[in-house]
Amino acid sequence: MASSALPGCAQSQSADTPAYEAANNEQVASVRAASYDIQISLDTDGNRMEQVVEMNINNDGSKDLDALYLRYYPYGYVPFLISEWPEGNEGKSAAITSVTRDGTADQLPFASDAGDNTLVKVDLSDSPLKVGESLILQVNAWTDLPILRGRFGTSVFDEGKLFSLTFCFPYLEYMKNGEWYLDPASFELENRNPELADYHVTVEAPDTFTVVGPGTVQQDGTLTTIDAKDLRSLAVFASDCMGVDAFEVQGISISNCYLNVGDVENYRMLTRQYLTDAFDSFIELVGPYHRDCFTMVEGCSNMEFSGVAIINGDFFYDGEVEGYQDRFAHLVHEVGHQWFYDAVGNHEYREGWIDEGFTSYLTDSEIACRDSESLRMVGEIYPEGNALEANIAEREMVRMGLEGDLVGLDHYYLNSQEDKESISTVMGIEREFMFPGQLPDHFYSALFLAQLKDAMGDEEFYAFVRDVYETYLQKIADTEGIKQILLEHDDSDEVKELVSFYLLTS
Ligand SMILES: [Zn+2]
Q1: Which of 63, 102, 282, 384 is the most buried (most CB within 10 A)?
Q2: What's the gap in Å between 438 CA and the centre of ligand 1?
Q3: Are strands 210-212 and 293-299 parallel, antiparallel or unpaired?
């Protein structure tokens, strides 16, 4: 599904012409959605959602716009997922039914891109969006929520259902320096717009369902309202078998949303401790949490969103007691994305090494390899092995393997699609399930940071990490900027060599 790139993409990923350089043009287009107002109606029997989405869009550039690009993941997601999990999902689909403007009933022409149907072009040529002006785009859409155990769709248990409403809201694509970022969407790789926007969401669902999301959530019977500021992405979950365990860590309100399925008591107890240790660790290593609340939802996949994450709880309801130490690392990883992804943004497709690298390094090499109350608790409940020792041993083994992969290469650019694809081919990664960028983004960028820490020493390395956080808090980081911060902290030959091996910069 992700293999068909758009015409502009091959060029935009080319190693020697980074497309995110400013267009050499006096007129620069710049457009963003400042806010989204979303009305969701959830059909919990039919496993389907309808939505009316109003986007408040501003033209901040110096060029009139005669088209807008939207992203609607369900166009690609739903057919792909039902081809993988056909049972119970026959005939499922998704559609945008209308696009209108400024409260009028006049339909704007729109069409999915032939190469990547998640990309929808809206034609404004009859009345371009002029410089300095704004418009309200109203998009009516629906999607089936396929039955599967994943990060999107309907998860079915004997005790009830969980609807994971993620990657299913139409949004305005990202534009930088006059260029639309039209990179392909894929199943495994995220490619979201990193700009911040405010959200006002209403969800209609039967009152037997608990609805959770980011920011302030108020449920009154069948209607739930969600108000949240400065989100890079929206995720909403609804379940009739969910409980919420609320507590605080360092003044942050944490909602630990658990399913009343399987080993509920151990899930609640362990997840609460995991969350506590994860927040304490990231605050200590990186800086304060930038929101006043966070929601962790037990589901069937691991994924980060702004102010919310989902964590796979199958360990607790499928009864297989294995990989107990991994539970900790997965949860800490998704919490870590609140610092690198949500607080510090970056384009996940082109520069995924930033959020995945910092998060993976801090999680796997630092936090999971420290003594913690969580790992002690895991050892008491599942005394099959020592979780801390297992994590440390695994980390050493993984690092040796990754360093081995890079022997003989004269560069391995974390921000070049070509390099990532070449190493994926060497490693024989299944293209259909794993986007070629996925594994390198997580592993090799974490290796880069581990080698940097060895070269710089702990103190300077963490000063660099905190500097990146403070510089790009609620902004969008890029490779060039991070390189500059790094060299301000340490411009030794060893660090410069690592930079020129891993980063393609100007
Ligand atoms: Zn991640």
Answers
A1: 282
A2: 9
A3: unpaired
Q: Which residues touch 505 (CB under 8 Å, ≥6 apart)? A: 479, 480, 483, 499
pTM: 0.91
Pairing of strands 223-231, 252-259: unpaired
CA angle 301, 304, 305 (to 5 degrees): 125
Distance 140 CA to ligand 1 centre (A): 31
Cα 499 to ligand 1 centre (Å): 22
CA distances 49 to 40, 41, 96, 203, 259, Å, are 7, 6, 12, 10, 21
For the chain, what percent of residues have pLDDT higher than 70? 87
Are 372 and 386 in contact, with CB atoms under 8 Å apart? no
Task: For residue 33, report the distance from its CA to the centre of ligand 1, in Å.
Answer: 25
Find the 126 Cα to ligand 1 centroid distance in Å. 42
Instruction: Express each pLDDT in 252-302 by its tens digit.
Output: 999 999 999 988 998 899 899 999 999 999 999 999 999 999 999 999 999
Neighbours of ion ligand 1 (CB under 5 A): 356
**HEC per residue, 65-76:** ECEEEEECCHHH
Q: 441 alpha carbon to ligand 1 midpoint, in Å?
A: 9
